[in-house]
Amino acid sequence: xxxxxxxxxxxxxxxxxxxxxxxxxxxxxxxxxxxxxxxxxxxxxxxxxxxxxxxxxxxxxxxxxxxxxxxxxxxxxxxxxxxxxxxxxxxxxxxxxxxxxxxxxxxxxxxxxxxxxxxxxxxxxxxxxxxxxxxxxxxxxxxxxxxxxxxxxxxxxxxxxxxxxxxxxxxxxxxxxxxxxxxxxxxxxxxxxxxxxxxxxxxxxxxxxxxxxxxxxxxxxxxxxxxxxxxxxxxxxxxxxxxxxxxxxxxxxxxxxxxxxxxxxxxxxxxxxxxxxxxxxxxxxxxxxxxxxxxxxxxxxxxxxx
Length: 306
Prior knowledge:
The protein has helices at residues 177-180, 198-201, and strands spanning 8-19, 34-39, 50-54, 61-62, 67-72, 79-83, 89-90, 95-99, 111-112, 126-131, 137-143, 166-169, 202-205, 231-235, 245-253, 262-266, 280-283, 291-295, 298-302. By secondary structure, it is mainly beta. The strands form five sheets. The chain has a six-stranded mixed sheet with strand order 9-8-3-2-12-13. The chain has a four-stranded antiparallel sheet with strand order 14-15-1-17, with no helix packed on it. The protein has a four-stranded antiparallel sheet with strand order 6-5-10-11, with no helix packed on it.
């Protein structure tokens, strides 16, 4: 969809028969850089490894001099596996990818460490942590049979034989491998769930690894100011538990002349609605010929007119 300056378009999601909200427990969101996804092996190599970081804050964070360290499942000594160079930075709501020299993924690492090689890989059970330039621990994950995880409960591992999976941090307390996978209800919400209990905050991602780097789109998208593609508004702006809403009107306005190939709208999974494309009504000339689709609680708008 090629948007012209000062052009706007609207999308209406109609609930059938009603759209209702339910009381939802508040998740504990991280306020600092976290380890968001990692893989301790790949489908063809035991050292096809990466560690992905996520920044849940509204500001970029300088990672210069930060370290990634590893220790074995029963170990007591941390060993450097990456020392990030000057001018390393993780964008707001964004990611930073650190990789073993044996990593073969299609997503380009932000930093490939010479300290992390086929001879110094991570085991199927172990620990990894991030410390800042002052050697203060920022985040730590222990998985499998690790004896020193956050909260005393280790995250799962993703297998002990060749596979293309990973271990991924949740976006919400209710996140699962399904909801975090592409098209899932939590796929675009970022990986910010942080109770400081590894066993509660991570899942085995059985739908395949999905490393992201500092060039990946921010998650979730910015509510104010945009990320170079546009801004969205919603009416009504406030809903109440137990009260039906006839429809939601979502309007999109571009910040500048960018081409948008897809718009994704996540309806809270606790709400009741039809989940049918017949409940989606598009208006605005930019949506001529557009095709709505629904996957889980997400509405996608594809193939918008130029």
